[in-house]
Design goal:
The chain has 392 residues and is α/β, with parallel strands linked by helices. The chain contains 14 helices and 14 strands.
């Protein structure tokens, strides 16, 4: 059997601290046969100076928004971002849009992403994804502030979910956020669409969201009134994002709460007391663009190790790069070990999506390997100089 052999200065397996001076042996299918110290190397190998880690899992991305840029949006307010999104989302021809998606997919692959959870409100990206050996799970969001639009979006979502599954991708029909789901569909969500699906839910992304859910006032209230909605779509008894969350999603669901920028310790405790399997996805660069705030990673990790990393979309993130998210988190929270943040972007992501062959470097797995060029030391502060490249 022909093997490929690589050596590196530091090896992050996805499950702990870096191992120094290691080799990795791969078979012709890119499956890991063996890892070990260089002193046990059976023959000459390709040395990749720096570090190697497993392929990344981008747990939250919007590839269908690849044609957008942060410069199109006024930052600092979730309401202004949503309004600009409604205006700019479709202001481009389909060919240009598909080309932008294609370039983004190639960038993700080249920088070592082995799998991703993609928000898909239409099937525009599905055929483009079949050209690259990456795993995908599609979250087909639906939302609506009046019952008619909610019904239409529900039917459309079921169709897109079927197209995704026929195309060979995992798929879930999932609600968008606490402020965008009509109360008439909460029971339908819990009873019909979320019994076995993974759930993605934009949560506590901005203070606009909190003010709207608690007081029916603020920038989101002004925007939604412009769209002829005065908050009655939320229904009675919904006076906080937490109330909407627990009224909408079943407690036995595996849920990924995305952003969590303004989540409190009391909300973290309530989430863990209500849900059986909650996960928390951080997208720091997007948060910095929209609200200028980093997610409270220290508070979340004090409660759980079920943390994931995503990039969000090109509309709010000027550099769609999982490594850039890792660097941003390490810079904001230097006390968190690098190997722990890396595990959020590798092993944890694969675990959430049940992609058993991905996420960690160990015999029998096929996670894809990422060469971290210019990496010099796990304690080094110059991580922004590191360049990720796909090895296989």
């Amino acid at each position: 059997m022909t093997q490929k052999l690589y050596t590196t200065d530091y090896l992050f397996t996805g499950k702990g601290a870096a191992l120094e001076n290691q080799f990795i042996a791969l078979d012709e299918t890119q499956t890991i046969c063996k890892i070990g110290p260089v002193s046990q190397l059976p023959e000459k190998a390709v040395h990749l100076k720096g570090a190697i880690c497993p392929g990344f899992i981008n747990s939250h991305i919007h590839t269908e928004l690849a044609h957008l840029q942060p410069s199109m949006f006024q930052t600092g307010s979730m309401a202004s971002f949503i309004e600009a999104m409604a205006v700019n989302k479709t202001r481009i021809d389909s060919e240009t849009r598909r080309e932008a998606i294609k370039k983004l997919l190639e960038k993700l692959y080249d920088e070592g992403v082995s799998g991703a959870g993609d928000i898909c409100n239409e099937p525009v990206s599905f055929d483009l994804k079949t050209t690259l050996p990456m795993r995908w799970h599609h979250f087909i969001e639906y939302y609506g502030m009046d019952e008619h639009s909610m019904n239409n979006n529900f039917k459309k979502g079921l169709l897109i979910k079927k197209i995704s599954e026929v195309s060979g991708f995992g798929a879930s029909l999932t609600p968008h956020s606490p402020y965008s789901v009509h109360h008439s569909h909460r029971q339908l969500l819990r009873q019909r669409t979320l019994q076995s699906d993974l759930v993605s839910y934009h949560f506590m992304e901005s203070l606009d969201e909190v003010e709207y859910l608690t007081k029916r006032s603020g920038p989101l209230a002004v925007l939604f009134e412009k769209w002829n909605s005065r908050g009655d779509h939320l229904g009675e008894g919904i006076n906080s994002p937490m109330k909407q969350l627990t009224a909408t999603i079943g407690k036995n669901q595996r849920i990924m709460l995305v952003h969590n920028t303004f989540i409190s310790q009391s909300e973290l405790k309530e989430i863990h007391s209500f849900f059986e399997d909650p996960w928390f996805c951080l997208c720091p660069q997007s948060n910095k663009t929209i609200t200028g705030t980093m997610p409270p990673a220290e508070d979340i990790r004090a409660m759980t190790n079920k943390i994931l990393i995503g990039t969000d979309s090109s509309a709010s993130n000027p550099n769609i790069s999982v490594w850039a998210e890792i660097v941003a988190l390490k810079k904001a929270y230097p006390a968190i070990p690098l190997e722990e943040i890396l595990s959020w972007a590798t092993f944890n992501g694969a675990t959430f999506y049940d992609w058993e062959e991905l996420g960690s470097i160990e015999p029998g797995k096929r996670p894809g390997l990422v060469w971290l060029e210019n990496f010099s030391d796990p304690a080094d502060s110059h991580l922004c100089n590191v360049r990720p490249h796909r090895v296989c």
